[in-house]
Write a structure and sequence with these properties.
Layout (H helix, E strand, L loop, with lengths): L2 H13 L1 H29 L11 E10 L2 E5 L6 H8 L5 E7 L3 E3 L7 E2 L10 E4 L3 H4 L4 E4 L7 E5 H8 L4 H4 L3 E4 L3 E9 L12 E4 H5 L21 E6 L6 H12 L8 E9 H4 L5 E2 L7 H30 L3 H9 L4 H33 L15 H27 L3 H4 L12 H34 L9 E5 L6 H12 L4 E7 L10 E6 L5 E9 L4 H4 L4 E4 L14 E4 H6 L5 H4 L3 E4 L2 E9 L14 E4 L7 E6 L6 H18 L8 E2 H8 L1 H35 L1 H9 L4 H35 L10 H27 L3 H5 L3
Parallel strand pairs: 2-14, 6-11, 8-10, 18-23, 20-22
Antiparallel strand pairs: 1-2, 1-12, 1-13, 3-6, 3-12, 4-5, 4-9, 7-10, 8-11, 9-10, 15-24, 15-25, 16-24, 17-18, 19-22, 20-23, 21-22
Helix pairs in contact: 1-12, 2-10, 2-12, 2-13, 2-22, 10-13, 10-15, 10-22, 12-13, 15-22, 15-24, 15-25, 16-20, 22-25, 24-25
Amino acid sequence: MHKDDLKIAWRNITRHKTYSLINILGLSLGICTCMVIFLISHYELSTDTFHPGKERIYRVVEAVTRDGHKDLAASVPLDLAQVARSKMTALETIAAYYLYPAKISLPNSKTHYDNTIEGTKRPSTIFAEPEYFQIFQYNWLAGRASPAPGTVVITATCARKYFGTVSPEQLIGREMVFNDSLTVTVSGIIQDWNAHTDIPFTEFISYATAQNTFFQKTILTDDARDGFSPFNSRAFVQLPSGVAPDRLAVELHRLSKTHKEKPGVTYDLLLQPLSRVHFDETIEDGFHKPHLQTYFVLMGIAVFILLLATINFINLSTALSIHRAKEIGMRKVLGSSRRGIVVQFLTETFLLTMAAVLPAVLAVKPMLSAFEAFIPPAVNRHLLDAVNVGFLLLLVVVTTLLAGFYPAKVLSGYLPVLTLKGPGTYKGQGKWWLRRGLIVFQFAVSLIFIISTTIISRQVNYMRTMDLGFSTDAIVSLNAEPRDASPAVGLVAQKIRELPGVRGVALQSFAPISDFQAGFPLQYKGKPEKEIQAAVQIADSNFISLYGIHLLAGRNLLQGVNRDSIKEFVVNESFIKAIGFNDPKEAVGQFVYLGDRAYPIVGVVADFHENSYRQPIRPLAIFDLREPEKSFAVKLAAEGKNLAAVQHTLAQMEQIWKGIYPDRPFSYSFLDESIAAMYKNEQKTAMLMHVATAISIFISCMGLFGLSLFTASQRKKEISIRKLLGASVSSITSLLTRDFLSLISLSLLVASPIAWIITHRWLEDFLYRAPVTIWIFLLSGGLALALGLLTISFQAIRAATANPMESLRAE
C-alpha cells in the first residue's frame, strides 16, 4: 500500500465527512455484531474440545422404549463397567462414576459447603473409578488417584476453598467429611480445567468407597430391573485407535440383552460422542442444554448484518461516485491504470473499515453486559486473545473486500472521454438494476427480522400468559434437602402455615410445572386392559387447593392418613381418557395397579401443564407419600400486590427456617419467575432478534438514504426543468419516492414466505403455539414502508424545493 494512496484516501474521506461517518457507523454495527456473536458461539461450540483423543471418547446412555415411545437418559447400570471389562473387546477404557449430592465440611468444623454446580441442579462431587483419570487428562499437582475406598481427589480451586493457602503436597492425607457421615482422605490434587466443559466435577471420591455403602445391588444382571438405571449412575468409554464406534455399539447392544424385559418395554445401551453431549437435548442428564440451531441462526444473523452494512457502503459509494467521475477521468488521462485506481479505492475502504473497528471493539463489552442475563456468564470477554484477534483481522479483510470491491470495480471502469464532458453525462454503465436489487435485499432481510421477531415475541408472550390450569400468583417455593427427616420438614411447614401473611402451605416433591420429570407404569385391568406410562406428582392433600387446580369429579386426597405408603390416586383428564373414560365421574372408584397392588382413583382434576409448551399434557397421577415431599409451596396472602407485606412474611419464614436449619442458607423462588426461567432460551432468542431487527432497519435506512441521494443527484436537472415547467413540490416528491416504495413492497413479497418458513420451523418445537395471522405480515410491511418513506422524504423534499437555476447554471 503506497503512502500516496493513503494520503489521497484520507483526503477523500475527510472531504466527504457525512458519507464517511455514515459508512463508519454502519460498518461498526456490523463488526460489533459479528464479534459479539463470535464470542458467544465460539464459547459454546468449543465445549469439551480440549481433551486429548476427544474423538475417541463416548458417553454411554440408556434407551427405554414403551408403547413405541423412546426415552433416553445418561444413566447406566451400576455394574456396567465391571461387566464390560470382562465381555467387551472393542474397548480401551471404561470409567464408571456416580453423582453425589452432598454437604462438604472438614472434621470438627461447623462450616458446610454446598456442592451444587453453579447454574445447574447437579453436584460437583462424584464417585469415580481410577480409569476416569485415564480418559480425561488432568495436570497433577500432588498425589494420585487411589483405587482404595475412603480416598478423594480434589481440584486446586477446591483445595483453596476448603483448606486455604496450604500447598498441595501438605494436603495429602488431610480429611474431608461429606454429608456429616462419610469421612475420606485426600489422595491427590489436580489443576482445574480453564476451558468450558460439561463435566465440571471438582471432588472425585474413589468408586470403591460407594460400592459397599451406597450401591446395594447390581442392575445389569438383575432380572427385576424395569426401565432406567439409577439416574446418578454414569459412564464414559474410550475406544482404541482405529476402532470404529459401530463395533462397540454392537457389543453394547448385545450386552443390554442379557435378560428379558417386561412386555411392551425395550431396553438398549447406546453411545453418544463427547462432541454431542453439550447440545443434545434428547438425552436427559440434568444439565440445561443450549439450542444448537439458535447459534447457527445467530451466526447467520451476524453474516446478514455485515452484508447489510457492506451493501450500505456500496450504495453510498456509488451515490458519491457521480461527484468523483471527473477525478477518475483526470487520473486515467494522466496515466493511472485501472488496477491502481482499484487499489486506491480499496485503500479508502480499508481506512474506513479500520476506523470502524475501534468503536466496534469498544462496544463489545457494553453489548455483552447489556445481555448478561441471556449469555453464559463465562463467555470469553478478553478481546486480546489470539483467536479473537485473528477473527477480528479476518473480519477487517473480508469487510474491506465485500464493501470495497464493487465500488472500486465500477469507478475504475469510468471512461475518461465521458466523465470529462461534464457532470451528469455518465450514467453508471447500466448498473442501476443492481443498486435496486441491493435495496430489495436489504429491506427483505430487515422484513424477515421484523416478521420473525413479531412471531417469536408473540409465542414467548403466549407461553407466559396462557392459562396453565393452575394459579401461580404469590406462590413461593422452598426446598429442603432429600436427606432431611420428615418430622423436620413437617415442622417447617406447620410453623410457616401459622404465619398471618400465609394462606396455605403444601408439601410436594416438586412444583406442578418444572424441568423435573418423574413417572411409572400403571395398569388398568378393565376391558380392554391398558398400561399407562403416567407422570407422577407426589404431594399432600393441600396441593390441589393451594394451586387452584379444578377438581372435576370425586374428592381430594385424604388429609392426615398414614402417609408412609401410597393409598389412593387423583388423576387428570388425560389419564382417564387413556384408560377409556370420557366422563370423569365414571372413572372415580376404578382401580389401577402399580405392580401387583391395586389403588383406587378417588378424584379427577382438569388437565394442567406440568412441562413446557414443547411437550404434551401427559396422563398424570397425584398421590401422597411423605418421604419424597421435601419441597414447600407457600401461598402468600399478599398475592404479590403488597411488597412490604411480602418482605415481612419472607423475613418471618427465614426466621423459622434458621430455627430448624441453622447451618443452611434460606433460599426461595417465586413460582411465576421459575416458570419464566423455563423459557429462557426463547426469551433470549426474542431479545437477540429485537436487537438484530433494530440494527438491520437502521443500516437499511442508511442504504436507502444513499440510494435516494444518488437518485436526486442523477435527476437534478430533470427536477429543475420540471419545476420551471410548473411541477409542484408534492408531485416531484411523489416522483422521487414512488420507485423506492415499490422496491420496499417488492421486499415484502420476497421476505414474507421466507420468514414464514423460518418461523414455522421454529414453532414446530411447540405443541402449543400462538396463531400466525396475516396481519403480522401486513403490519411489518407497513412499518417498513413508513420507515422507508421517512428516510426518503427528507432527501426528496430537499431536492424538490431546491433552486432550479443552481443545477441548470452549467448549461
